[in-house]
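Forwarding these from the shared drive since the link keeps breaking.
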Amino acid sequence: MTQLAAGHLKIQQDTIPELNPSYRLLLGPGPCNVDPRVLRITLSPQLGHLDPEFFAILEDTAHLLRWMFQTKNEMTLCVSGSGFSGAEAVLCNLLEEGDTIISGSLGFFSGQIVEISQRAGANVVNLETELGAPLEADVLEQAFKDHPEAKIFATAIAETSTGLLQPLAELERVTHAHGALFVVDAVCGLGGVPMNVDEMKIDACYAGSQKSIGALPGLAPVTLNERAVQVIKNRKRPVQSYYFDLQYLHRYWNGDHNYHHTACSNLVYGLREAVCIAMEEGLEARWARHQLNGDALKAGIEAMGLKLLTRPGYALSVLTAVSLPEGVDELAIRNGLLDEYNIEIGGGFGPLKGRLIRIGLMGYNSCRKNVDTVLAALEHILPRSGLTPQAGAALAAADAVYTR
């Protein structure tokens, strides 16, 4: 019997179980199941991060991302990491110690703009909204009047913790009227909700590979226009993070490909394939698909007697936040779906913990089959929590959306 020794730790080889992860239908706030084409391409031969063939793939992927963002920005690339790595990169490059940033905190995820900015040494003006409600332009206008030195306004187009779609047009107008940079978190939204970075006059934007784009976790697409890039070039001090220095990353992705870090070629293959799939579908058709399936899910949820957290008219298509009545066990619902149906959904964060379930329909997962599947499973699970939806009502309501 062979023993594997690592320092003082000894492991008997025949006691190591075979790794066999369970299948899950990932209908939470991300990650999501991906198209089999994406999985297949990630099994392609690995390339080194300094291989000329890989450099060509990086340039091609950056070009495709410009299409996804709908931008001509030269500085368009991926940061290796989750969506938060994109947030860290953009904010830490644009902010210096003592700068002022106004943050539109719509919930947990856009709320992290505050902490990231504070850690960068910035002074943060935090505009925190009621959960499920958008930030109004007059509130931002007053914040700029109170803090005319503000360098940046940053918020999210899609707040994953509350299912909110934040209108951006008036916020952009106010921001640029005061000479500040307009920064948008699109981690959940890019590829699922209507976005056109250049037309929307967004100065810097970051996203995540694992949500509406439809790729595996591990990459954060970012794009910055020339105005934002010039702010980085004019810094008084170097960016405090080597790893997140966007000028170095841009040189690696789009310039002379000078070494910066060991990028994972297979993750890049998968992202590239996911964007190709989106291109074949077309952005307007993709946005419409997400909207249709999101509408059908919401109709089914409301037919069960449940209410949406988000203020009417501001609900995301790609993520539905469902308020639970007092006394209903959120964890029991989620565990029931996971244990009996292999369906993963999300719960609430912070003050919404135990009071909310969140159902995502993003990328490959946004389809009628998944809408019907999760509604039928919920009809079976909910009575154990004291809720008694009328049998078949949810599916009938969803069907009415599809056939109208």
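-- next protein --
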Amino acid sequence: MTTNKTYHIITIGCQMNKSDSERIASYLENLGYQESSEKEADLVVITTCGVRQSAENRIYGIIPKLKKQNPSVKIILTGCLAGREDVKKRIGEKVDIWLPVKELEKLKALLENCEDDFCNTSIYNSKYKTNDDYLKLKPKYNSVFSAFVPIGNGCDNFCTYCVVPYARGSEKYRSAEEILEEVKILVKKGYKEIALIAQNVNSYKSDANVLINTNDADCESKKVINFSKLLQMVNDIKGDFWIRFATSHPKDMSDELIETIASRKKICHHIHLPAQAGDDDVLHRMNRRYTRGHYLGLIKKIKDRMPDVALTTDIIVGFPGETRQQFDKTKELFEEVQYDMAYIAQYSPRPGTAALKFEDDIETEEKKRREEELMEVLRRTAAGNNKKYIGKKYKILIDKKNKRGNFVGRTETNKNVEIINPENIGRNLIGEFVAVKIEKADDFGLAGKIIC
């Protein structure tokens, strides 16, 4: 492999994609590549997202721009769109290597072919084997204080709107030993925040072939480590750090897991629990495998056990066949739960999914109106939640400076906090825990002063 070549990675989408890009960066640097800007790089890797049409559309603008500014650049496309035949037909001649991320070990051979301006991606199906254990690769972390630690990859839920099971395959999980070793190394290096991530963290099990559900009563006798037990083990690692996780599926949110989050000191009281809709019929057509009543029951249990919890969610508006009355059920859900944040998406048909067979019968303007109605409720409930922080003291992890030059951090409950007394700070606080008294609050942010 020729050394002293350069690379640049563009990441679109979720935390898992960001984590994948960190491993790709490490892999390339082990081959002798050096990181560079996108305009000057010999190789540009695009980690793609296909969950929404808007995310997919980004690559159709990015790739021609890259080729125009640097005609000799080699482009690798990985992520959710790497296996989509319709995407290959549209931009196939502009992409040099199509690389499903779990086949990362093939990249060395593909790059060697590309050195002679010839990239033969057909070797995917012949000479080189697939390695599903790419998560064993040591990543090049983008942060020196906050790290994504993937605990698994893939999804077995097959929600009718979602491409992830097709793009990433079935669920496969890392051993608890391997995860704990990665966390211990990070904590020893001084990392303050560990984020355990997977498509569905709370379906984690140490042996993917043993159990289907983390609630299985036989879990203990079969010596399976479920997500609750994994969290307990990470919590017991010595060090000054806190633990986040994403994303949870409501069907797998057990009483045991709620109790673990509530009772362990290092686990943040922020739970992202995607509802997707507030109507049972819509949930059924989405294949979500829970009801509105079950979801609200979980919310009650969580709030009863953790009164200080921050709750966030994902919602799809305008799912095929969603009536105005059914949407109103989602709006009522927002009023009842009082979310701190919600990621609201207008439904877009995704190739390969079951919902593609449904008629996309909600007009774009109506989807937009529904999104705006939910945002109006969200701003009000989030502002009300944030006002409760005023006058109280919180531990904050500082993670950046904003455009005004003020430090910005996050509470345990993932609230953004701007530090408004920087004149009293004589050092760089990024990556440090500080104590802050909250003095101001708006709908999606807080402001306060460092008190020690």
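Confidence is low (pLDDT under 50) at residues 120-131, 208-221. The chain has twelve helices and 18 strands.

- D.
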